[in-house]
Amino acid sequence: MNLFGVMGLSGTALKAERIRAEIVASNMANAETTRTASGGPYQRKHVVFAAAPEQASTFRNALIGQSASSLGVAANSGTGVEVTAVVNDPGAPVRRYDPGHPDADKNGYVNFPDIDPMTEMVDMMGAARSYQLNASAVQASKNMLQSSIDLLK
Amino acid sequence: MHITTPLADELGRYLDLATQRMQLIAGNMANVDTPGYRTQDIDFQKEFSRVAGEVAADRGPQGTGAGALHTPPQIEAVDGLLERPDGNNVSIDRESMALGELQLQFRTGSALLKREFTRMSEAIHEDGK
N or C: less crowded end of chain A, CB within 10 Å? Predict the structure, then answer.
């Protein structure tokens, strides 16, 4: 792996954090959703992150191919991250009394998703900060690549 | 016969090592939210003195001069960091510091290498032609 590999590695994190932010946005958007395709109210979703070896880009594979070891290219040592699953929160729905609601049961209670906007906002900020952190890592590897290129000038 | 100077070889390996450490730091940053992930790093000073020894051996009478000795650095789990309840011990401050440090190291290394190449080039065109 070289400096381009480092960018790919930070790229896996940018992708994972973006998916996390999308899921949080979906949770916030559906905070009041009482009907879903699977029936019942919307269920809060979580992402599951796992460390994963960075997959060499196809361009690099095509360029270096099998000669990677003979060129002294180090084996992949850093690990990227991937979203392995998006799981539903098993928490019970919140029951609210609203007899006029079309989804109210015979006692007048409606099942709403158990979504706390504050929790979601904190999660969103966490995702945004992690995204920034990894974007700064991309910027750092770009600067390093630039100084390597300057050797040629 | 070597066309490069020992310093240029050493600087090349210094930049290689900085890149390898950069991979680990980027990996740590990527996994800042991965449960159970442990911070990884290399002991830069120790690894660099080993690498400098390799360069010297390579250029010595028994060496091939082809840069054959290229053992990968030893990756270690970093101890003494605060562990979060999910088992992850990545510290954003530590990684950011390491990233800034690496950028400076890399710029220093590449500036020195550039200077070294210019010097060699001046030696080839000894009268400045």
Answer: C
Indicate yes or no: CB of B70 within 8 angstroms of CB of A72.
yes
Strand A45-53 to strand A79-88: parallel, antiparallel, or no bridges (unpaired)? Answer: antiparallel
On whether the CB atoms of residues B59 and B65 are closer than 8 A, the answer is yes
Q: How many Å lie between the alpha carbon of B61 and the closest alpha carbon of chain A? A: 22
User: Distance between CA atoms of B129 and A134, rounded to whole angstroms?
Assistant: 47
Model confidence at B125, pLDDT cuts 50, 70, 90, reads: confident
- Closest partner residue to B106 among A17, A51, A144, by Cβ? A144
Binning chain B into helix, strand and coil, the percentages to the nearest 5 are 55, 5, 40
Nearest residue of B to residue A79, measured between CA atoms? B27
Q: What is the pLDDT of residue B74?
A: 87
Cβ-Cβ pairs closer than 8 A, A with B, add up to 112
pTM of the model: 0.82
DSSP assignment letter at A34: -
The structural domain count of chain B equals 1
Residues of chain B in contact with residue A50, where contact means CB-CB under 8 angstroms, are 34
In a domain, B52, yes or no: yes
What are the tens digits of pLDDT across the range A16-63?
Answer: 999 999 999 999 999 999 988 888 899 999 999 999 876 656 666 666
B36 backbone φψ class: left, alpha, beta (φ>0; ψ -120 to 50): left
- B102 touches B15 (CB < 8 A): no
Domain annotation covers residue B25: yes
